[in-house]
Structure formats: C-alpha cells, structure tokens
Amino acid sequence: MNLSHKRKRTLSIVAFASALVLITHPAIAQVPDGPQVSPPPNTQPAQQAAAAPPVAPGPRILVPAGTRFAVILENGISTRGAKPGDSVYLRTSFPITQDNKVVVPVGSYLRGELTETKRPGRVKGRGEFRMKLNTLILPNGYTVDLNADPRSADSGGPETMDSEGKTVGGGGKGKDAKTIATTTATGAGVGAIAGGAKGAGIGAGIGGLAGLAATLLTRGPEAELPRGSTLDVVLERNLSLDSNQIQYNNVGTPSPVTPPPARAQ
Length: 265
Prior knowledge:
- The chain is 27% helix and 27% strand.
- The chain has helices at residues 3-24, 26-29, 173-217, and strands at 60-63, 68-73, 77-78, 87-92, 96-97, 102-104, 109-118, 128-137, 143-154, 160-161, 166-168, 224-225, 230-235, 239-242.
- A 6-stranded antiparallel β-barrel has the order 2-4-7-8-9-13. The chain has a two-stranded antiparallel ribbon with strand order 1-14. It has a two-stranded antiparallel sheet with strand order 3-12.
C-alpha cells in the first residue's frame, strides 16, 4: 500500500468519526455564536406551607356578675389634669376561682378609661371623676371584654366613692375658713400697730376681705387616686372565658404593694 492510499484512508476515518460525533451530540452542532442568554427564571410561586388549623374553643366558664376583684392602680389619677377618655390601668392582687380552679390569676391586667371628670369649684363644688373598666388581659395574653365598675378605694386621702364608681374629692370649707381667719387676724394686728383699736378694726376688715378674695380665687382640693391605691371592682355582667385559654402552670405571684402616702384630711 503506497503513501497516498494510506493518507486517503486516514482522512476517511477522521471524517467518519467527526460525522459520528455530530450525530450523537447534536447540541454541539447547534451552539450559536455570540454571548448566551440564560433562560428566564421560574416564575411559579412557591407552594405555601399549610397553616396550622386554629384550636377549637373549649367549654365556656362563666364568672358571674357581682364577682369582686381586688386590684391595684398602676397610674395615678387627678382631676387637676385628667379628662374623659384617659386610660386607667390596674392589676389584680388576689386570684378569682371558679369550681375550685383559678380562672383569673394574680397579676392579670385590667384596662379602662375615665368617662367624666370635673375640677373643684372656686366657691363650691368638689372635684370628681368616674371610671369604667372594659378589658381584662390574663398573664398568657388571653384578652376578653369586661364590664366592671369600682366600688371602693383606699387612696390615703379624703376621697369617697359611690356605688356607680364616681370618686369625689374632699371639701375645702375648713381650709377656706382658716384662710379667712388667718388673714383677718393678720390685718387686725397690723391695724392695731398702726392706729390702735380703731386701726385694729379697719385692719381686721381689710384682712377678712383679703382672705375672702383669696378663697374666691382658689379652687378646692382636687379629687385624686395616687398610684398604688387599692380598689374593689365589681363585675356588672357575667364574664365568659374559654376553658382552653385558661390552662395555667403558674397561677400568679403577688407583687409587693406599696400603698400611697397618707395625705392631709
């Protein structure tokens, strides 16, 4: 076999192999020239995980109307700056039980608002305000509507509370009388020094008028419930609780109670 025949045979084998590669791998033969563009990303939304089904409510537990809550005031109230709509915050200091089970533990929170306020007058009238409690929040976050009013309060001062939750401040008659008497006596003393008995009478009259003017320009004592005041709250209607929401491992720990300082009567 001469050299030319061998060369032709080699070329035929190479051509056959190239054709075989193109047949078995067509993608190699179809690669276009130039930069390649990636295929668009898959726009199908990811399948969302199925949400856990809500827990079915359990049997209802009723706390009857008339039940009393012992609570502590968390924010002070004063007719000096209070206005209707202001929030009132309290917490329970004693547990509520139903069928030998704690249903409202110590440390539960009550929220309400002031429904009316009135400052004391300059001549007559006492400071007063009224509150309404409308929300109960248990320590586990379970929140229910509430309809309750305070019935009594220990504020360390002269305030009184009626059966509808209205707090009334102390009167100012004794203070007014003392103011007039003090200014009268002072005026009489100055008048006596200046002009004897006649001057004493004139000074007393001037002092009395000054005391009366001071009384007319000064308001009576404000009605106040300082922070830490203890209140007795009464349910106005039945309180319905979901038994599945009041499963407590800890029924609450009483917090130290710091009563408000005693105030002058």
